[in-house]
Specification:
With 252 residues, this protein is α/β, with parallel strands linked by helices. It folds into two domains: 2-77, ATPase, nucleotide binding domain (Nucleotidyltransferase, domain 5); 93-238, 2-Layer Sandwich (Nucleotidyltransferase, domain 5). It contains seven helices and ten strands. It has a five-stranded mixed beta sheet with strand order 3-2-1-4-5, with helices on both faces. It has a five-stranded mixed beta sheet with strand order 8-7-6-9-10, sandwiched between helices. Helix 1 (34-44) packs across helix 2, helix 3 packs across helix 7 and helix 4 packs across helix 5. The longest helix is centred in the last third of the chain and has 27 residues, at 180-206.
Length: 252
């Protein structure tokens, strides 16, 4: 299957089969154009159809139009309002990011089936920490600023320089920062991992303490080593969720 994940920062096109990503191609979502979309689709399409999930409505419309001009038999746009991703206890599933639900579905089905509750950490433009209870029901969770958003917010202060993530050491500091750069970068590392840890602790407690923890998303490989609790690194959860739900919809 060709799985397409339209995120706030990056759009990923992936050929995926049996939860294994065979090939992928990425574009910045802000730079999506019909020609580049058509090229990515033609390179990766196969006979199992195409499934799309998006958190960016404007980009979705352009992508679906570009796909419609190609030679693709079946294309589905996964919509939480129109499709059942998984059982949930949310007040409004239609206003919950589709990526959160798809990552949780893949975590439940592939990585931790029948093993108590699951905490799914998704580290992208934002960081979400979500809970799937021991019955397989998505309970919701917490939304935190991602690394770039964190630095961007600090950069609005006139007295703080505009630091970049390529200056980041990705280590939780063990001492005070002695300059503004050290203080900002140390605050990001300590603050973000502390917020993730506390969010995961609250969710685990609400589930009785017996949980598996999984981290995914574009920043997952950077944040994963900084966490001081046992966590599985699974960077392709959303793509895997797209494949699972996309095949269900196509087979209906």
């Amino acid at each position: 299957m060709l799985a397409i994940d339209i995120g706030n920062s990056t759009t990923v096109f992936a050929s995926i089969s049996g939860a294994r990503v065979r090939e992928r191609f990425s574009l910045r979502t802000s730079e999506l154009a019909a020609g580049a979309i058509a090229d990515a689709v033609s390179r990766l399409k196969d006979g199992e159809g195409t499934a799309v999930a998006s958190v960016v409505p404007a980009a979705t419309e352009m992508l679906m139009e570009a796909i419609s001009t190609g030679d693709i038999d079946t294309t589905v746009l996964i919509d939480s309002a129109g499709h059942t991703i998984m059982a949930n206890a949310l007040e409004s599933v239609s206003t919950t990011g589709i990526d959160r639900l798809l990552a949780a579905r893949a975590a439940r089905d592939i990585h931790a089936p029948g093993e108590g509750g699951i905490i799914v950490i998704q580290a992208g433009s934002a960081v979400t920490v979500d809970m799937v209870d021991s019955s397989g029901v998505f309970q919701g969770g917490f939304i935190l600023p991602g690394p770039a958003m964190w630095l961007g917010a600090l950069g609005t202060a006139a007295a703080i320089p505009d630091f970049h993530l390529d200056e980041m050491g990705w280590n939780v500091p063990d001492k005070a920062g002695k300059c503004t750069r050290e203080a900002v970068m140390g605050g990001l590392a300590a603050g973000l991992t502390g917020a993730i840890t506390e969010s995961a602790r609250i969710l685990a407690k609400s589930c009785g303490g017996r949980v598996s923890r999984i981290i995914t998303g574009g920043w997952s490989s950077k944040i994963y080593p900084m966490l001081d609790f046992e966590t599985v690194l699974a960077p392709d959860l959303v793509l895997q969720g797209i494949e699972i739900v996309g095949k269900e919809i196509i087979s209906e």
